[in-house]
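Q: Fold this one first, please.
A: Sequence and structure below.
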Amino acid sequence: MVIRFKFKKFGPVVYIGHLDIMRFFQKAIRRSGIDAAYTEGFSPHLKLSFAQPLSVGVETDGDYFDLEMNSLPDMENIVKIMNDQCVDGIEVLNATLLDDDTVNGMSSVKAADYIYYFEDLSDDLDLINRFFSQDSFIFEYVRKDKVKTKDLMEDIYEYKILGDNEMLVKVNASSAGNLKADVVTEALEKYGVSAKCLKFKRHDLYTTNENNEFVSLRDQGKVYD
């Protein structure tokens, strides 16, 4: 049996790298006393996997890890049990007892929502709408000293203006075509959007169902808040 935990990361903790976040939860799980499963052999370790690493410095309201269990803990209180072991800046939001046929989060992620915070979007709304309405936008950018070229519209699935200074964008987050959140802001700037992006955070991660519809990783079993 597997439990999927959804957690948020905020404040100074966002500057801690993914490997240290993994080590933190390994220790928190051990301290919690829940009956988590371990591998066999000379150096056993928790059967724990994270859905997708997040860049250092980025906040998240929607990251996940899957934990295999030997026996079920008190599911009605599992969120409190885990949060009692957490520190300021890391909070477990809910736990999902996964259906038996659920693929682990790492293998099933298809999309991610990011919320972008701008100084003021009111003067750029028409331009932003035109940008996201395009059938194609070939964008060239540099990552790790390599020039990459991508048609962004193939990897942008949805956008919503949430207010004068907030925007949500759903992008491809699969292993085959992961679109980094900051590439979107670079493209908007190149297109002529003048509003400065102050920061962005990951809001949620999604897989797809049998109808190829996006489904939050949270909703693949029974959820306990």
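Q: Good. Now the second chain.
A: Here it is, same layout.
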Amino acid sequence: MNEQQLSKRLHKVVSYLPEGARLADIGSDHAYLPCYAVLNKQASFAIAGEVVEGPFKSAKKQVEKLSLTEQIQVRKGDGLAVLTADDQIDTIVIAGMGGSLIRSILEKDSDRLVGVKRLILQPNLAAHKLRSWAEDNQFALIAEAILMEDQKIYEILVLERVARPVQYTEKERFFGPFLLEEKNEAFQTKWLHEKKNWHKIIQTIEQKSSIHSENQPKLKELKHKIQLVEDVMA
């Protein structure tokens, strides 16, 4: 992967950028995504944010090598703290982290979201936590994708700010309203695999000589999730 050829996952993320976006890529790693977006005129300006020294240096080197320092600024900092109002960022990408971490990044510096119109989020797990965050913060899903790459399954959520809060059903929050409509092969593979794992966990708990009371909520939760999957796949 490089600035000319993104991974399948990141290429799909970039496809959701509005034309001429002022982009912030949080957790940018080698800055391949903002470099690709600027080179292909999908972004007019970009900030590559990194909190770790190694990736920060790699991103700076990459941007300098491509002579893109006027269009892409590489900044070291924690999450949205790298952004200022003067940047006039309208689109934020956060990809390749857990849903809980992405949510904490959005919550920690929520004031930096003023003026941001679109969020493109690619959680490695717990996407439902981001849908729940959207409900509480007046963002709504406008698109979702789920795909498989290198034997891993990735979800992508595209959110836009709305005038009034939205509310999703339990199944929409858990599986994704757009993904529920499509139920493509990657979707089915993911949730049948999850269901199998949950059954194994239940068996492990129930094989113990005595099921302690503290395990009861966990068992109830797992059985509920299995039922949700069975309902959706029916």
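Q: Anything worth noting on the second one?
A: The two ends are 39 Å apart (CA to CA).
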